[in-house]
């Protein structure tokens, strides 16, 4: 069976290396995974004042998450955390109270940085957020990708074979994780 995966790219930058990584992951994903980007760049800054009446852009964002079986976060590390835009998007999705879009929705995190620890600290923070949001997360494999110039082309091709194999395996593992989670937690009507 096919599984729909929505991916959120933490960076809004035009030349984002995490967007390149996401492009590579889409190409390396096993055929069972249908990958689609869920954009959050047009969301206003969240406040619970919106809870009584979400604006259309926020409803569309929550609907997009509801429509997928699992969520993949591909994020840079900004100041040892996830970018504010991504945190804002997660806050929107988690509300209003009782309508948390991430509840029981399987997820995985990955990211790339020119630095040697490859977004590890941002990912650790994101995992805490996703835990609170009750999203079952793939614990392993972890993926901390150090971006070296040319590692991934603009077309999303991974130029280092060992990295390509690692990323293919990561996506295959995510596919199996989604299958396992959906066996015990079938998707609820929302
Ligand atoms: C960074 N960068 C960075 N890198 C890192 O490994 N740890 C960090 O804490 C930070 N902090 C940080 C803060 C801010 C505001 C910026 C703009 C950048 C460098 C970062 O990894 C690099 O710019 C990447 O290109 C960001 O990924 P995207 O946005 O290109 O996908």
TrEMBL record:
The cross-references to Gene3D superfamilies, in alphabetical order and at most eight, read: 3.40.50.360
Instruction: State the superkingdom.
Output: Bacteria
Q: Which PANTHER family match?
A: CHROMATE REDUCTASE, NAD(P)H-DEPENDENT FMN REDUCTASE LOT6
Q: Where is the NADPH-dependent FMN reductase-like domain?
A: 4-146
- The protein depicted here goes by the name NAD(P)H-dependent oxidoreductase
